[in-house]
Amino acid sequence: MTAFDRARIEAAVHEILIAIGEDPVREGLERTPSRVADAYAEFFSGLGVDARAMLGDTFPVTDGSVPEPVLVRDIEFRSVCEHHLLPFTGVAHVAYVPSTRLIGLGRISSVVDTLASRPQLQERLGDEIAAVIESGVDARGVLVVLDAQHDCVRTRGPRQTRSSTVTVSSRGTLSQPADRAELMSLIGAAT
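and the corresponding structure tokens:
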């Protein structure tokens, strides 16, 4: 993967402005290519970053007990739909059943943010989060529920301004509906 190329983004936005019939040097638009480059640097900051590294130090389960599921609800995220390059925003609910290691709770949101900061599909984002958590701590089970609103649905075509999309990704023990039912009810209790 090549590094972020700010000059090319600015040049491309300049060309888009011309292509839609605008004057890219008129007042109000003269800094737009630079502003878009700034936004894209943030939106796509997860490209080339190993999301597993976001887990940081993990902690051993030392008391010999069989750990119960851990759930972090309402992790706000934003991403960019790879089909239209328009944002989608929402919340992630991430649960895992530890095996022998625990994740620092704040690190889960870092994984979500890193993976969301790429051109994405919501379905793939959930799968990627689940895979990083599962492999990062050898979790016995992982459940990721994403609830997001897509600007490509809200602002174009049928313009469904109040709709949201919910996706579920699961691994291991939390792939079984009976094993994840309690977590799903806890997630639902958040709203």
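(Above: one complete record from the training split.) The chain has six helices and seven strands.
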